[in-house]
């Protein structure tokens, strides 16, 4: 697949979706020479800021690090497995934190759910603006906590790459195969427990 073949990544859906949803995918190949577009990065973060949350608590916080900064290097140093081999080419890395305890010490039961919505909004806005995002769970949460002195009320939930798609041929063989594999999903009927 070349950059010209990105249209082949559009989902084969059973219902018509907004283009930003149908075309969204999570690449591992990023252009390591491309600098993150600050206006597009800001728009993605603004989309996260305006996502819904239980009782409007907005329990999300983000660590945003651009490639070439010590903060970026600290995040890469805490990525695990294959993530450490490819994520360093992204233009930016974003650590998503959920505020699971409020300032008064009360549990925020929906914090992880709300953070997930915020990151979803971020990824869709980024894709709409021509950037690509890939969310990862393979990271050392304690390492990130120590690297950024994260308050105990907050839990690192995910790390998201953000940037410009690059050539998949730059990836190691196993990752390139995954990058080029057809997109698949469980059938819609299979995810509906009840559809009365």
UniProtKB/TrEMBL annotation:
The organism's lineage is:
Bacteria, Bacillati, Actinomycetota, Actinomycetes, Micrococcales
Q: Which residues form a coiled coil?
A: none
Q: Which organism is it from?
A: Leifsonia poae
Instruction: Specify one Pfam family.
Output: Nitroreductase
Per its record, how is this protein called by name?
Nitroreductase
- Which terms are listed as keywords in the entry? Oxidoreductase
Nitroreductase domain spans which residues? 22-163
Q: Name one GO molecular function term.
A: oxidoreductase activity
* Family annotation (PANTHER family): NAD(P)H NITROREDUCTASE YDGI-RELATED, NADH DEHYDROGENASE_NAD(P)H NITROREDUCTASE XCC3605-RELATED
The domain of life for this entry's organism is Bacteria
Q: State the family it belongs to.
A: Belongs to the nitroreductase family.
């Amino acid at each position: 697949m070349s950059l010209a073949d990105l249209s082949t990544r559009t989902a084969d859906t059973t219902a018509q979706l907004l283009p930003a949803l149908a075309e969204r995918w999570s690449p591992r190949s990023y252009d390591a020479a491309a600098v993150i577009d600050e206006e597009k990065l800001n728009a993605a973060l603004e989309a996260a800021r305006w996502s819904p949350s239980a009782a409007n608590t907005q329990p999300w916080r983000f660590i945003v690090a651009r490639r070439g900064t010590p903060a970026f290097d600290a995040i890469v140093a805490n990525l695990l497995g294959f993530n450490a081999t490819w994520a360093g080419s992204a233009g930016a890395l974003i650590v998503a934190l959920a505020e699971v305890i409020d300032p008064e010490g009360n549990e925020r039961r929906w914090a992880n759910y709300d953070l997930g919505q915020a990151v979803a909004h971020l990824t869709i806005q980024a894709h709409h603006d021509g950037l690509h995002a890939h969310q990862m769970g393979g990271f050392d949460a304690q390492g990130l906590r120590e690297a950024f002195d994260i308050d105990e009320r907050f839990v690192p939930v995910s790390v998201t790459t953000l940037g410009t798609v690059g050539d998949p041929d730059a990836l190691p063989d196993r990752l390139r195969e995954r990058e080029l594999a057809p997109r698949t999903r469980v059938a819609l009927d299979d995810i509906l427990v009840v559809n009365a």
